[in-house]
Amino acid sequence: MPIEEHLFDKLRIELRRGALSLGVLIALREERYGYTLRQVLEAGGLPIEEGALYPLLRRLEAQGLLTSEWREEGRNKRFYRLSDDGERVLAQLLSEWDAISRSIVRLSEGNQ
Fold first, then answer.
1. How many CB atoms are closer than 10 A to CB 20?
2. Pairing mode of beta strands 32-33, 66-73
3. How far apart are CA 22 and CA 94, in angstroms?
4. pLDDT 10s per residue in the chain (112 long)?
5. What is the chain's alpha carbon radius of gyration, rounded to the nearest angstrom?
6. Of 19, 28, 45, 79, which one has the fewest beta carbons inside 10 Å?
């Protein structure tokens, strides 16, 4: 693989990691379990592998941004939802995302 492709892949993964965290928080304004969360993310253009989703969910829950509970619905499923802290942090992150997005558009259009 040429160095440019390798570098692009590394930077793309780094950029995508933050976007996925934000996407998960947005999607979990409504309670979901892992499979339906993956479907929502994929439909929104942010597909995520199962092996990446569950560690992300555990990290966000450990940070206090999510709550979860096990329920039996045919079989045991763990349902996730934003916590109150998660709601507040999401609002701040969306504001930050909007500011960054506007800045990137301005820079890319040469309107510094």
1. 17
2. unpaired
3. 8
4. 677 888 999 999 899 999 999 999 999 999 999 999 999 999 999 999 999 999 999 999 999 999 999 998 788 999 999 999 999 999 999 999 999 999 999 999 986 6
5. 16
6. 45
52 and 37 in contact (C-beta within 8 Å)?
no
CA atoms within 13 A on the CB side of 90: 21
> Which DSSP symbol is given to 47?
-
For residue 74 the two structure tokens come to 């045919």
- CB burial of 24-58 (b: ≥16 within 10 Å; e: otherwise) equals bbbbbeeebbbeebbebbeeeebebeeeebeeebe
Handedness of CA 82, 85, 87, 93 (dihedral sign): negative
